[in-house]
Amino acid sequence: MKDSRLKFVNGKQKEFLAAVIKDHFGSQAALARFLGFHKRAVCGWIAEENNIPKSTFQKIEQLYPEYKSYETFVEKELPHNWGRVKGGKMRVSQNKDLSNYLKYVRSFVHNRNRKKPVLADIENLLLKRLSDEKVDLLSILAVCTLTDGSLVKSCNSYRISFSSSDEVLIDFVYALIGKLSGFYPNINLGSKGGKIVSISEPDLGRNLLKLSPEYRTFAIDENSPPSISFLFDKNFQTKVWAIRFAFTTDGCISVPKNGKAELNLACYNKNLCEEWKRFLEEFGIKANIIRLKKAKQGVAGVRAYRVESINNFYKLGGFIDKVKISRKSKRYCGMEKNALLASVIKSGQGENRTPNRSIISRVLNH
């Protein structure tokens, strides 16, 4: 049965969504990721330019019963395609089986744009290195998707995407998806100046779900949370590169002005944090789970601050080479992550010292 759209009393749809974001998600983007929609869709609902789907409202209502009272502000239900621009009226009116005709049109448009990549067009030295080392490439894509990516069911397919402001990571994931799927992924500009690599591919999506049953941080089904348990049985090189990519995409080396350096990996899922903690311990990286009361599950990632742990991460290769620190860091923006890591190692971490600019300069010029 097709979904419908809800028409709220003027102002109440905005009030409802604003309350949900404030109490549980913190941002429109976080709510959009949870629901499996683009941020623009959520913005349209909040501005009341578009009507929220009934199934989406019910999903939020079931998870957070405190908003059930907003049912009283629904004036009426509208058709699922209400507000859509009509086109091709004559052709559609002549077709008796509208459902099959639309399915045919969609498949034609979808397949027309699907091109098999030419290997020379997506040649990537980092990808070649991983292939030569017999790394399980699907596992690396799963790690990238669990950190700075997403996997969302879209009709009969799965939309896989990865976002980053670093060209090294974007180029690698573009080549990686092309190799695993056999088709060109798309590259679009992100909302904050970064880029998004994405593809709708049913086979690749199903293969990723065999590794982790969920890729959303806030899984609807608590019995099937996102997981990295698939990594425990992989070969040594796959495990090493999984750690390096995880910390590169969603981690950092934090260097406070006063105090010891810390190696952090952001993660807001309790199950994932516990698994990352156990997995890192296999490589001598002893980490603690970061507790954060305002987070939905009370966690914000894992943190390693012991000298031995940071040294062991450095011995594994550290971050992915040439990936730079983003604008989130005012002090070290634009500097290579591995250069900062090396400066921490050379600065006498065990003596509780912060790397100074002269040390950083020597490392960069080395």
Structural description of this entry:
This protein is of the alpha+beta class and about 375 residues long. About 45% of the residues lie in helices and about 15% in strands. It contains 15 helices and ten strands. The strands form three sheets. It has a four-stranded antiparallel beta sheet. The longest helix is centred in the N-terminal third of the chain and has 15 residues, at about 100-110.
In brief, what are we looking at here?
By secondary structure, the protein is α+β, with helices and mostly antiparallel strands. It has helices at residues 12-25, 28-35, 39-46, 54-63, 89-94, 98-112, 125-132, 137-148, 167-181, 202-211, 236-250, 270-281, 307-315, 337-346, 357-364; strands spanning 5-8, 74-78, 149-154, 157-164, 186-189, 195-200, 251-254, 262-266, 288-291, 299-304. Helices cover 44% and strands 14% of the residues.
